[in-house]
């Protein structure tokens, strides 16, 4: 026979016993191609699971070569990822068949084209399905809490084209804006000592607006399992909900605390305005960075500063401790706990106890700062039944997913390592997951 028309053994074998002929019930993608010159028609159907071709079948009307190339490409494609399958070329098909007569090479082209068309059909349908799904929601992503965690999540979702809303009950920027707007940001590589907390928040807010994030100044009262967010003014449904409610300064739970902690009567949880303490005798309770920060920020204004700590060592970072040692007006009472805050209208004295000696004593003070830690804001999730850690933080996996489907958590409410960059990193992980979950790109 003329070499130009000679088929290899493998071609003949596939022609006589074609593999994977037929149709797939509920095929995920269908590719149809034809060659008008020779009249060959080829259809390939695919079933995809987790981005892998689980099944590939064909129906071909054509010559022996068209049957053999179709049969071969199904064998080559099954078990491959979509990306790998898209890389199969006509040459690969011909090579696997031990070569094709030059005049029949177009058949291998047809097989590769039909497979690629089926994959493209699958991707288009998947995108369409994701769009239809998305239309069922008011927003792709709803974020509860407008601190660093929530704001950065909103920016990163907006950047990915996700329709995003963020709800904030009080101050945009969370604790940084509420407690220390003029402080230079720390622990933020590249920006330390270069920007204040409020400047950073303003940059985030501008970015969120530019990316068309819907910034809503509303307190969220409840979240339901079917991803509804309920506020005083309405109900909003999200494809994904992100909890970013942060923390609130913990109460010390001592006698007199409640009486003096409202309306500027002398009990505070942070120093927001050092001028308020000008000429005063201030007692700071606590032993971590917050307590030492409070002392340092009052160095220029307060008259006497006393830090009382239950243990025999402070836990602040070394450079702050060094700075503290240079301040003569700061006195540290180790092994000392606060028992009571007392006074008529304003704070006048503190009742203390040395825990080692078991001795009580009193101190005349004008203000008490209770820097005793932070409590995660999880109150509104009680009804939702979300799983918490033993310390009361929202439990998440490494994708920031909570125990409830479609609900994620970021920032301080979900982490005992409480820094801005941690909250931002959480936001990026969530934005990436939200995009892949909602848009279902072909590579997922
Ligand atoms: C005094 C102080 C100084 C700090 N300095 C630094 C620093 O220099 N560098 C650094 O990296 N980290 C610093 N931190 C830590 C940093 O502030 C936190 O890690 C960061 O704020 C966490 O962001 P977040 O969004 O998780 O929480 P938060 O900042 O607490 O924000 C949570 C937001 O959620 C809102 N919210 C709560 N409940 C609801 C509700 N039901 N509906 C709507 N909104 C709600 C709150 O109003 C709040 O605005 C500091 C912390 C403090 C307290």
TrEMBL record:
GO terms for biological process: iron-sulfur cluster assembly. Residues 6-127 form the NIF system FeS cluster assembly NifU N-terminal domain. GO terms for molecular function: iron ion binding; iron-sulfur cluster binding; oxidoreductase activity. Residues 139-427 form the FAD/NAD(P)-binding domain. Pfam families: NifU_N, Pyr_redox_2. InterPro entries: FAD/NAD-bd_sf, FAD/NAD-binding_dom, Ferredoxin-NADP_redctase_2, NIF_FeS_clus_asmbl_NifU-like, NIF_FeS_clus_asmbl_NifU_N. Keywords: Flavoprotein, Oxidoreductase. The keyword Transit peptide does not apply. This is Scaffold protein (Modular protein). It comes from Candidatus Methanoperedens nitratireducens.
């Amino acid at each position: 026979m003329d070499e130009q028309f000679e088929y290899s053994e493998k071609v003949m074998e596939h022609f006589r016993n074609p593999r994977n002929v037929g149709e797939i019930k509920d095929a995920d993608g269908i590719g149809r191609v034809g060659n008008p010159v020779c009249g060959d028609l080829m259809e390939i159907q695919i079933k995809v699971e987790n981005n892998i071709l689980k099944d590939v079948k064909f129906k071909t009307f054509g010559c022996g070569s068209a049957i053999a190339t179709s049969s071969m490409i199904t064998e080559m494609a099954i078990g491959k990822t979509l990306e790998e399958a898209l890389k199969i070329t006509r040459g690969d098909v011909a090579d696997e068949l031990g070569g094709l007569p030059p005049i029949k090479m177009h058949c291998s082209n047809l097989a590769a084209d039909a497979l690629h068309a089926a994959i493209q059909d699958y991707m288009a349908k998947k995108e369409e399905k994701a769009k239809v799904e998305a239309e069922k929601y008011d927003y792709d992503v709803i974020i509860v809490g407008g601190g660093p965690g929530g704001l950065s999540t909103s920016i990163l979702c907006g950047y990915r084209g996700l329709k995003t809303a963020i709800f904030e009950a009080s101050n945009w920027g969370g604790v940084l804006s509420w407690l220390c707007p003029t402080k230079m940001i720390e622990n933020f590589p590249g920006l330390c000592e270069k920007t204040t907390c409020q400047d950073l928040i303003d940059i985030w807010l501008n970015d969120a607006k530019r990316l068309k994030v819907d910034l809503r100044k509303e307190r969220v009262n409840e979240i339901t399992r079917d991803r509804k967010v309920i506020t005083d003014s309405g109900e909003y449904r999200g494809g994904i909900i992100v909890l970013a409610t942060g923390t609130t300064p913990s109460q010390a739970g001592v006698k007199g605390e409640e009486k003096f902690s409202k309306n500027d009567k002398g009990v505070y949880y942070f120093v927001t305005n050092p001028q308020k303490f000008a000429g005063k005798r201030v007692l700071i309770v606590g032993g971590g960075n917050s307590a030492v920060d409070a002392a340092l920020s009052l160095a220029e204004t307060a008259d006497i500063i006393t830090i009382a700590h239950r243990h025999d060592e402070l836990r602040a970072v070394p450079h702050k401790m060094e700075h503290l040692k240079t301040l003569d007006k700061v006195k540290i009472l180790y092994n000392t706990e606060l028992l009571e805050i007392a006074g008529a209208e304003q704070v006048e004295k503190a009742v203390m106890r040395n825990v080692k000696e078991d001795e009580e004593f009193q101190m005349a003070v004008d203000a008490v700062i209770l820097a005793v830690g932070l409590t995660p804001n999880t109150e509104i999730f009680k009804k939702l039944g979300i799983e918490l850690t033993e310390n009361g933080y929202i439990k998440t996996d490494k994708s920031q997913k909570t125990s409830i489907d479609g609900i994620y958590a970021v920032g301080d409410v979900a982490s005992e390592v409480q820094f801005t960059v941690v909250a931002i990193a959480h936001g990026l992980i969530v934005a990436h997951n939200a995009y892949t979950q909602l848009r279902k790109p072909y590579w997922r």
